[in-house]
Amino acid sequence: MKLLVIGAGGREHALAWRLAQSPRVHKVYVAPGNAGTAREEKLENLALTEFDALIDFCRREGIDFTVVGPEAPLAAGIVDRFRAAGLKIFGPSQAAARLEASKAFAKAFMQRYGIPTAAYAEFDEAAAAHAYIDVHGAPIVVKADGLAAGKGVVVAASREEAHAAVEAMLAEGRLGEAGRRVVIEDCLDGEEASFIVMVDGEHVLPLATSQDHKRLLEGDRGPNTGGMGAYSPAPLVTPELHARILREVIRPAVAGLKQEGMPYTGFLYAGLMIGADGSPRVLEFNCRLGDPETQPILLRLKNDLAQLIEAALEGRLDQVEAEWDRRYALGVVLAAAGYPEAPRTGDPISGLDQRGEDFHLFHAGTAVRDGQVVTAGGRVLTVTALGDTIKIAQARAYEVADHIEFAGRQMRRDIGWRALQRRANNRSRA
Ligand code: AMP
Ligand code: GLY
Question: pLDDT per residue over 128-144, tens digit each?
Answer without folding.
Answer: 999 999 999 999 999 99
